[in-house]
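Fill-in record for Major facilitator superfamily domain-containing protein.
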Amino acid sequence: MSKATMPTLDNSKPVGDMNVLEMETNQSNTMSSRESEFNDDEPWNATKFSWKRKILIIVAGFTCTFNGNLGSSMPSGALDSISETFMVTERLSLTLLNSLYMVGYVLGPLIFGPLSEYIGRRFVLIGTFIGYLTFMLLCSAAPSYPALLSFRLLCGISAAAPTTVISGLYADILDNPSQRGTAMAVYMSVTTVGPVIGPLVSGFASQISWRWPFWVAGIVAASGLPLVLTLPETYAPVLKNRHIKRLSEKGDERGATTTDQLHVFSVQKIFLRPFTLMLTEPILLFTALYLALAYALMYLMFQAYPIVFQGFYGLSPGMAGVAYAPMIVGIITALAAFHAYSTFYDKAAKAGKGWAQRELYRRLPMACLASPCMVISLFWLGWTTQENISPVVPSIAGLFFAFGFQLLFMAMTNYLTDVFRQISASAQAASSMTRSIGAVLLPLATGPMYGQLGIHWAPSLLGFVALAMGAIPFVFIRYGEAMARRSKHARDIYA
């Protein structure tokens, strides 16, 4: 692996602006031999953690995001029960249960992504996980429908943190892009299962009471809390500052000679960074737009499936929830495909194959494969929903959708992390904000769209849009390197 593909803490663009980076570079050039020896130890470098500790961090990351994603779709199988309890008859009002949760995914990343690059990953993840658990339990005790909607919004804000922080967390501990890609792929497979099984669980649990789906989500989250509480800090600038201050407080002369190396955090620039990146980085902008479409389509499915399988086929909420099962198969298949391609790429790179020396080919070919799969699934769902065709057949569309959706996210989120590395939390925050806006707005149009266009043409229209957006990874393969070299933040990977 070339040095350019694995930028270190010193030659990347970490916290703050270029003045801070230049100041640190000038300081390092004037360091004494004792200071150099001190830095060679790098006790703040989380990539030197033991593998046992790294695996704990990776699994804790799974736990944080799985629970948040599970909660996102939990009301989908309980809409009838909630409607009867609170006497809510408007379909649009019921859609707000999921849409307001996704509004939290718009607001949360703007706070927690940059915050994790200011106070560190640990406190952000632990604090928001406890917040998610608290508000999920409050949902189960909501005395009115407005209160339930309020708790859903607060729950979504808390649940949004891991979606932006985990990529940075894994980049902190895994400097090998192959290992990091595998960790992200497994992470995304585990966490994507959450929103898929949410309607299945709630479809059956809601037959006891509308409160039970939220109780189940709370119990699942509570079981993972002890693991999340063991998360150590991993963010190098925060760890370095703590280490230097600790030595200084103890009177250690190494701390005294390195106090001027403390990282200077520009709060304003940190919290504006997601917006700055989105406006100045075409790679991030177009990746975010494509992921926004895919993410919105996923959450549209949670509104469309009840229309198809309960409204058209007349299935019970529990049996309609079973229609999501093929999606789980698609997720598992996508993970296997990702692993197979990654192994193939690594072998080709090790053998010196010319094509494998281009970092673009590490992730983007999988995104290219994802595009037609999503298009096929939308047309499949639309045109196999017929009175004389078993509901099993249109449910299989979920396999193709989940396979394409999962491959796309595995490829493109890893691509963003590879490109932006230490500031990837801010890049992911911008991307998460964009796709969450789509997940809020598009599902709200599900009822009117199906009402106006019908069950055949509504998903077909979305299929045409997905076909057009699917050109983005192909464009990146052709022009991505040139775009990255002109970038202020992304050029390290292609230097």
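KEY FINDING: The chain has a mean pLDDT of 81.
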